[in-house]
Amino acid sequence: MVRLITHNLLACHAKGCTSNNFPLQFKDIQIELREAEFNPDFLRGFIPRIEWGALTDAARQLGDTSLPSEPPDMLDDDFLQKLHHVLLEIHVEEGAMVCPNCGHVYPISNGIPNMLLAEHEIG
């Protein structure tokens, strides 16, 4: 499933593409919203692993502007609910992710990203 919690960890791995290969940009996407169980402790523990700028940019690409440009000092329930929604409830079902450096396209079909490369693209 392509959710922003996963997207925040993905970079292009095409041969020779070693800089400016993160975050992948969404293109021609279709999203679906699905409720997920709210777990504030999980979110608090996961925040240090998030590349915040990439997350907020990706959320905006998907039409969600609820997150602040920087994570707040106070992790109150309102903020954690918004983070939960962005990370875990927005599912990209169709479309593509495109490398900002080399332009490689990673298609998304039925919610599954194809991160496989052709043999000549492997580094």
From TrEMBL:
Q: Which residues cross the membrane?
A: none
- What InterPro entries does this protein's entry cite? Trm112, Trm112-like
Xref: SUPFAM superfamilies: Trm112p-like (SSF158997)
- Gene3D superfamilies associated with the record: 2.20.25.10
A GO term (biological process) for this protein? Answer: tRNA methylation
Cited CDD domains: Trm112-like
Cite the Pfam families for this sequence: Trm112p
Question: From what superkingdom does this record's organism come?
Answer: Eukaryota
One of the record's GO molecular function terms: protein heterodimerization activity
Q: Its family?
A: Belongs to the TRM112 family.
Quaternary structure annotation from Swiss-Prot or TrEMBL: Interacts with TRM9.
Name of the protein this chain belongs to: Trm112p-domain-containing protein
Look up and give the organism this protein is from: Fibroporia radiculosa
